[in-house]
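Repro case for the chain-ordering regression, as requested:
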Amino acid sequence: MTDLKKDYQKILASVQKPVIGEAGKTGTWSRLKPVIDLEKCIPAKSGKFSCFNCWLYCPETVVSREIPPKINLEYCKGCGICMEECPVKAISMEEVKYE
Amino acid sequence: MVNVLDIVEDEYIHPGTRMCAGCAMALIYRFALKALGPKTILTVPASCLTVLHGMQGFCTTKLSVLHTPFATTGAAASGIVSSLEEKGLADEICVVAFAGDGGTTDIGIQALSGAAERGTNFIYACYDNEAYMNTGVQRSGSTPLGAFTATTPGGKTRPKKNMPKILEAHGIPYVATANGSYIFDLYEKFQKARDIKGTKYIHILSACPPGWGYDPKDTIKIGRLATETGFWPLYEVFNGKFILSKPSKKHLDASNRKPIEEYLIAQKRFKDIKQQDIDNYNSFIEAQWNEIKRRLENQ
Amino acid sequence: MNVSGKNVVNSKKKVKILTGNHAAAYALRQARVGVMSAYPITPQSPVVEKISEFIEKGKLKARFLLVESEHSAAAACCAASATGSRVGTATSAHGLMLMYELLPWASGTRLPIVINLATRSCGAPWSVWDDHSDFITIRDVGWIQFMCEDNQEIYDTNIQAFKIAEDPRVNIPTIVAYDGYILSHTMMPIELENQEDIDTFLPPLNHHINLSDISQVKGVGPVTTPNIIKRKEGTAPGYYEFRYSLQKALENSINVIKEVHDEFTKKFGRAYGNGLFKTYKTDDADTIIFAMGSVSAQARTVIEKLREEGLKIGLVSLRLFRPFPIKYLREFFKGIKNIIVFDREIGYGYEGVLSYELKAALYGLKNPPFIKGFIVGLGGRDVRSEHIIEGVHKSLELAKKGEIIYETEYFGLELDELKDYDEQEFLKGGGK
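-- result from build under test --
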């Protein structure tokens, strides 16, 4: 253990290292979460790497660009942009339980 | 134009930031960093972006950033560039300043102008949410006509400062406008700017749910309306040549532009806007597009 | 003879006749600064011009950012330092005040920047002439502050300043001040050291931040909160801890400052007292004049005359203003009966800053000395020998009576010559 009273030079400038969830579990900010209807979702339905508007327009980097797209509900703030921008209306905002 | 699969899959921002739900700036930053890649040093003045980066000890962004006082962005970037030049790393590492509209059009304009005049080799990006959002929505030089803010309770009586034009007047090689709702266009502009030597300026309209007064889910739609109404045209000025960007091309024909009311009505900040201001918007948009036409014809 | 006690005329080293500003420029060049960023201001401008010339002629391999204001100069210095370069600059008065926002930023980020300050009065009204007002305005921003007395000391202190600022036990930005015009524009012979010797004394900077190393991702200078932050990834200090560390390092920097000074003396043969203050004829003294910079230089010239009157008087010329060398001053002033302080500035609303800081430093000494302060030479007015002599006489009389005067007292004011002055008459305008 360092004694910072003596080793005060270990505290020099305020610096940061990258972490996930800097603001905590931001998933708690909203009750409503996006749910993807895989029957409608273009990549899920076609099996082709296309569309991904939900991934594209997510300001929180919680959607993955895979088939089918997955949403990290732990950090999703529930803004609803993905629902609005889905061209086939495959996403709805619902109360979901997640771990 | 790029498509969804051309875009780098790597993310440079970890989820779980302090940004409001539906923040266009977070989306803009996400794509700008993707376009810039890992060999980038950022500098950020006081703004919402400072908050996005996180508090002491822990940050959200996987690229190095130097936080700098409000008025200093252009100068801080110049200092980083000089140091990299001294170390022979200037061609390898891209220096990018990212500031809000207050930090750019108001308090930071001098440092930015100085950096541009010196031909500093860096990208300056302004995300323009049209007020001091981080301090609770006060007017900035970039707040548009008629908009309510905490310091313009009766609506702003002056139009927004045309910052891209001011930067163009510095004779720098690259000036572009962008919009958080046109992600591909924005991505391409950052990629292009990265490879140009000299000062590059990108001014990005950034919709703000709490500041503008709309539901967070509508961020992309509202931003799009700014361009679709002809109010916020997307263009580049590359080595003096004016290039109208793809999303704005059809708006050369006035009949393809949506009425400005659609954009204004969708936002609470314009709820008390006067007819006279709407008329002013219309004449501004018309004049703006006449100028664009002239520029396209005369080059 | 200069204040280090050397007679440069007989020097075997390379001697150049330089102004104070050019002495600073030569020192910055020999310290091998990597980035300079500056903005011209009277009376500092010749530093900027000389550095430009060095770079133009290829004598200095540095990047010189000629920015559009001192605010930007200081910001660029901070950024270049955080990117890992050795950084220096120079300014005066309004320039320093425009830099002000960045000064606690630099110390709070522990950036070892060196600023040269050619001192000048702070407006209004405009005055380009010398006093120490600008120097004292930054006493609370967490910088190490030196005041020099001649041009050799400017050169020597700059070389020492980089070594002190960059010492891992310190990491604190440093300011090297010298009187505007009186030193900045006055030529004196200066011993210049060989580059190889300077290079051994001052090795290349190993910066604790170095943003240019992009293999290590970091945010520098983010928002801090009132409390520490604990996460599973680690625990991060809050604002209070950073500022504690700065103060602690400043307090302990005195040891490094002395050490670097002694090493310098050993290597180059020039000494400035104990590195913290210089003494002149103090061995048998019971009365001391306490001052800094040009005021000390003036006081030196009258000590002999006062001694002829039978006074046991000497001079203490303060070199290190921040951190204030309390311990060493208390030790030195034990048994001294009288101290007369001459301040070339005012701590407005109180008195001369050196005067009140010395009083605070000597608080609680047994048989404390009688301390009396005077203001001299504001806005470039001459500090004359008779001011010092009169001050000493007056102070000794007061000491005899044990009388304390609360009002600030001055020398060199010419109020008697202004009996017919009336501002209202000037405002009415002329041309009747």
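Ordering looks correct now. The first helix of chain C runs from residue 20 to 30.
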